[in-house]
């Protein structure tokens, strides 16, 4: 590696740390507190457990990152998780389809819901909040209608290995998928024309249009990717639970949004980094894991997560306000 390439790599790492210094400090502080409160927190087995637990949230949060940077929101991802997992297991158990075609159909169904979201938003100019709120109910309804509201048990060892297997007998496969997707979408966002378009549309839609950015295609692609990743998360979750459950995925969209906001993804669009989303998801995972180790009720955990999201949104709005004030003062000078 040349000296120039080494310098660029160091600058990239420095920028990641500098951009996420606030949330990194919060993560470190929470880790120190939990280490003193419970001796099991820093064990290797618990760290691996945390990574496994956050993997599904990161699958969703990656897609949500693209959507929010674009300037939108996707409330349907939790229901797509339930729909894809329930239908994929049902195809195998109830309809007798082979495993891999069933998985492919499950993934395509999630991508289709995302495609539908993108088309309605891009072509008919309906706000993303309204569209995805509607498809959230539609996808959840499909899962309940297909399953009759009952969970479907699957005993296929090959299917269960997708979500419960290990690489080299050490690393859980969902963690492997997580790292692959993080690297893939970090490259897409930072090194491709598509990633540049996503930031351009979210930053200034009119400027992007005048620059020749195919805004409608970008919107459709982003929501399709979000739906596909949600379907992937649903299949992995159903594999881990050995069943397809129409109740699965409830509230998952909130965890994904929380990870993005905690990671510094601006709700107004145009700014943010995938690295921040990953750190945000880790913080949420650490908090949930720590509260479980301490023995805090899941009801209280919902309360804590709600406050975390609220505080993160307030900080984000104030950050935007301060940034605008600084820009105005610079223009005056």
How would the blueprint of this fold be written?
Layout: H1 3-19, H2 21-37, H3 44-70, H4 77-93, H5 99-124, H6 128-147, E1 152-153, H7 157-164, E2 166-167, E3 171-172, H8 173-191, H9 193-203, H10 205-210, H11 215-241, E4 243-244, H12 252-262, H13 274-294, H14 298-332
Antiparallel strand pairs: 1-4, 2-3
Helix pairs in contact: 2-13, 3-8, 3-9, 3-11, 3-12, 3-13, 4-5, 4-6, 4-11, 5-6, 5-11, 7-11, 8-9, 9-11, 12-13, 12-14
Keywords:
4 strands, ABC transporter involved in vitamin B12 uptake, BtuC, 333 residues, two-stranded antiparallel ribbon, single chain, ABC transporter permease, membrane, mainly alpha, 79% helix, cell membrane
Description:
The termini are far apart. The relative contact order is 0.18. The strands form two sheets. The protein has a two-stranded antiparallel ribbon with strand order 1-4. It has a two-stranded antiparallel ribbon with strand order 2-3. Helices cover 79% and strands 2% of the residues. The protein is mostly helical and 333 residues long. α3 (44-70) packs antiparallel against α11 (215-241) and α4 (77-93) packs parallel to α6 (128-147). It is built from 14 helices and four strands. The protein has a single domain (37-318), classed as ABC transporter involved in vitamin B12 uptake, BtuC. The chain has helices at 3-19, 21-37, 44-70, 77-93, 99-124, 128-147, 157-164, 173-191, 193-203, 205-210, 215-241, 252-262, 274-294, 298-332, and strands spanning 152-153, 166-167, 171-172, 243-244.
């Amino acid at each position: 590696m040349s000296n120039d390439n080494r310098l660029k790599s160091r600058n990239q790492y420095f920028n990641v740390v500098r951009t996420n210094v606030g949330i990194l400090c919060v993560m470190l502080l929470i880790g120190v507190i939990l280490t003193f409160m419970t001796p099991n927190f820093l064990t290797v087995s618990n760290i691996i457990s945390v990574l496994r637990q956050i993997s599904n949230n990161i699958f969703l949060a990656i897609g949500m990152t693209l959507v929010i940077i674009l300037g939108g929101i996707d409330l349907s991802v939790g229901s797509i998780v339930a729909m894809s997992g329930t239908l994929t297991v049902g195809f195998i158990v109830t309809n007798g389809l082979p495993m891999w075609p069933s998985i492919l159909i499950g993934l395509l169904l999630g991508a289709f819901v995302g495609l539908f979201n993108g088309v309605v938003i891009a072509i008919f100019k309906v706000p993303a909040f309204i569209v995805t709120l509607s498809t959230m109910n539609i996808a959840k309804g499909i899962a309940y209608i297909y399953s009759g509201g009952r969970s479907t048990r699957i005993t296929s060892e090959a299917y269960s290995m997708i979500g419960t297997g290990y690489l080299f007998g050490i690393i859980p496969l969902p963690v492997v998928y997580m790292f692959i997707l993080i690297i893939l979408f970090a490259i897409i966002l930072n090194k491709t024309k598509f990633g540049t378009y996503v930031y351009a549309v979210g930053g200034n839609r009119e400027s992007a249009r005048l620059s020749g950015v195919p805004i409608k295609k970008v919107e459709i692609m982003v929501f399709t990717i979000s739906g596909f990743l949600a379907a992937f998360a649903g299949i992995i979750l159903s594999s881990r639970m050995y069943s397809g459950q129409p109740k699965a995925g409830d509230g998952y969209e909130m965890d994904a949004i929380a990870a993005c906001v905690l990671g510094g993804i601006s709700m107004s669009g145009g700014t943010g980094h995938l690295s921040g989303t990953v750190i945000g998801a880790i913080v949420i995972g650490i908090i949930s894991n720590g509260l479980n180790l301490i023995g805090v009720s899941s009801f209280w955990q919902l309360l804590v997560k709600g406050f975390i999201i609220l505080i993160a949104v307030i900080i984000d709005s104030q950050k935007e306000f301060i940034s605008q004030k600084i820009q105005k003062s610079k223009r005056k000078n």
